[in-house]
Write the structure tokens for this entry.
Amino acid sequence: MRGMKTALCGECASFPEGDSLPDAEAMTQPAIAFRSPAFFRLASASVIALLAAGPAFAEASDEAIIVTGRALPASVGEAAYDVAVVDRARIVATASGRIEDVLRDVAGLTQFRRSDARSANATSQGATLRGLGGNASSRALLVLDGVPQSDPFGGWVTWPAFAPERLEQVRITRGGGSGAYGAGALAGTIEMDSIGTGEGLSGSLAYGSRASVEGNAMLAGQLGSGFGFVSASYARGDGFIPIMAAQRGPADIAAPYKQATIAARGVAPIGDQTELQVSVMGFTDRRERGTALSQNGGDGADASVRLVHRGAWGVQALAYVQMRKFTSRAVSVDATRTTVTQSVDQFNVPSTGLGARVEVRPPLGEAVELRLGADWRRTTGETNELFTYVSGQPTRIREAGGQSDTTGAFAELSARLDALTLTGGVRADRWWLSNGRLVERTLATGALIRNDIAANRSGWEPTARAGLAYAAGRVTLRSAVYLGWRLPTLNELYRPFRVGADATAANPALNPERMRGAEIGIDWAPAEAVTLRATAFTNRLTDAIGNVTLGRGPGTFPGVGFVAAGGAYRQRVNIDAVRSNGVELDANARLGDWRLSASYAYTDARVKGAGVAAALNGLRPAQVPAHTASATLGWRTLSATARYVSAQFEDDSNTRRLKGAVTVDAVAALPISDRLSLVLRGENLADARVETAISASGIVERATPRTFWIGFRLD
């Protein structure tokens, strides 16, 4: 109907309470020292400078590199769990050149939206495994060199921060519970490791469709008896129009992006078996969502120090700090898609993460391994936003935020008894939520509209996991059971939001999510270069956090105020459970110059709802496909990748269905010299329609269309 409006952005955010209103314009200024456009100029200049620098960095010393840059070795007990590894060769050779695309090689690992970080809103890019989705916050724990990487305020992931050039491998543990990593590893862990060796200059420059440009460079080499690298990445593009062509109007425009990251890492020996690892990283990310007034993105800076001792007593200690600053603007578009109206300006979302972790492995003999450890993490953050726009101007301002703390200790014992590996561990975590508030004022006068102060809360979360693996020749049988948990994010607890006519209230009384699961699997190596892996699993997520419809407009509702006709009133609540059963299959083979990797996951996920969530009982969680698959066939420096994702639902009520899709990518690296190659890349070669979102009025958004790249790579 004429006059109806459709939201193009999901959750979008805070200023300290005081006697007078802050200057909203001043609060849009950076909370972090580097900013666009200066940071973009620095990043692009760094790429060019590194590509021109030559091998001088690597020639600083002729001494042998005696450090690894890695953590302590993987646990003996890991053999009992479903672990997938993506190596460096694959990380740096995908058609998109983006790490979030690399992770799609592992079936069952999904983001809330199907789109990547060039066109998605950053708040929709949480990662999860095994169908435990339905929420934009990550239910899998992502770490880089041991440091958690989800946004401290919202739990989403800023994928452009992680340049593939600097990564050695990614290890994905499906399920597995909390284990040694604790809170956040609900559905599993995604462990990214920086390179630990290398010498000289590597990098790439490429030009692609829609005036896209990418540059990556890394300079690595010995530093005395140690090792170090400096890397820089830059990407920009004019973008594509997200709305499907048949539904577009004058309001629909392309969605450009501009992203950059700089990182440095040094590893130095401080003894025969001890090394110190120091890392710093900074990034900036700017995206638009396909209309005017729809910018989103942010900035970040991380620093970490890790001490690793590989003697009889294995010891590692880690300390880190994260700083984030996010912004996002949401709009409504009229039914004819001719007029854009600002609805929310989340102009400043600063957050900080602090943490420390220590692990000790006492000497108990070659067959037995004991891991003892403890960790602590604090997140603080707030959202500042302008809302309730009248004639294009905001009339109200909101601040919402708080602080969360978790601290835990764990013990895990593993033993390798000939062909049998046994493992078991326990963990206890203590959590605190404090300083929670939601404050709203009239912008013109500063008059207080609401001042909700949440009660401080705390609790204990005990978890455990156990497993076994039995190796019989080329066949390994394994089984595991586990518990996991996740604390609600500050965003889920304290921030209400609107999407078009729909309004969702915050809920400071949310309980932690808890998961229990079990799996059984078989690994088979029929030949030296062939591995096949199958896993069947069952998971049950209780107190799952979701947005549940409690009423319809027109009317005034608690926590959000007036909801217009056609709008829904929702609140974040703890749903009874999400039950997820499924099967995962993986295969890898290398025959001469040929190589094949394939992955498939079937997930039957269903909501168990009662009370206010009774209407959701038996439905699928939002954004959870039943089938995902990926296969890559390569010959020498040529490769092609096919991916399939089945239909899934946009919403919890399963009324908006996103169609399934098949995409095909290809990469060809044509050697020019021993180190230099001409690289041709193609994304979504058949220009498949990959639907990522659908509004209540049926407006459909898509992921990246067909994209071609040409460039050079220096190895």
